[in-house]
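User: Just a sanity check before I run the rest of the batch. Below are the structure tokens for the first item. I only need the designed sequence back.
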């Protein structure tokens, strides 16, 4: 297009004429009532007075700005000595220092005619009471439990991605592993030539 302004004016003129087009009602040769914007001549078409369209505002939830949170840290004199911290709170504050998939390794090729693969994680410290591991393959949950190893079955030939999520007793996510990509191969019986 040489001049986009002319194109814009042309298209806006067409849209305005369509938006304000008259609607006519007439009876055709077979006796059917027909509505349209271009009636045939000598059809006795009459303009139809259409009611105005009802336009309602869309639902918009009322958004209120959250009040700023007031945070204050206790003065050094108010801090509790380490000996007074309950052991449960100290245990909850301690996160797992290591949580990663150790088997299969990244880009490893797994050969299994049954489509099974053992997935293992390294977890330091060991799993706490109430915590659990949820296993995912190709973004779909594949199992859960409290052991650091799981066997995934019936995987198809091709590339797969696996990761694990560490949950507490309430189901809250504590930690995720990195996603590991591996390849599954199965032996196939090719027909003889």
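Assistant: Here's the designed sequence for the first item:
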């Amino acid at each position: 297009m040489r001049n986009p302004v002319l194109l814009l004016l042309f298209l806006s003129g067409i849209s305005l004429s369509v938006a304000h087009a008259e609607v006519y009602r007439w009876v055709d040769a077979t006796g059917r009532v027909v509505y349209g914007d271009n009636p045939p001549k000598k059809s006795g078409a009459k303009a139809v007075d259409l009611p105005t369209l009802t336009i309602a505002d869309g639902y918009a939830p009322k958004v209120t700005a959250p009040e700023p949170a007031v945070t204050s840290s206790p003065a050094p004199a108010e801090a509790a000595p380490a000996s007074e911290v309950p052991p449960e709170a100290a245990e909850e504050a301690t996160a797992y220092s290591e949580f990663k998939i150790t088997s299969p390794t990244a880009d490893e090729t797994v050969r299994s005619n049954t489509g099974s693969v053992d997935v293992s994680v390294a977890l330091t410290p060991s799993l706490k009471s109430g915590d659990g591991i949820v296993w995912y393959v190709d973004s779909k949950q594949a199992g859960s439990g409290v052991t650091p190893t799981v066997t995934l079955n019936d995987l198809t030939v091709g590339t797969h991605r696996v990761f694990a999520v560490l949950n507490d007793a309430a189901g809250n996510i504590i930690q995720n592993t990195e996603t590991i990509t591996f390849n599954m191969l199965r032996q196939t019986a090719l027909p003889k030539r």
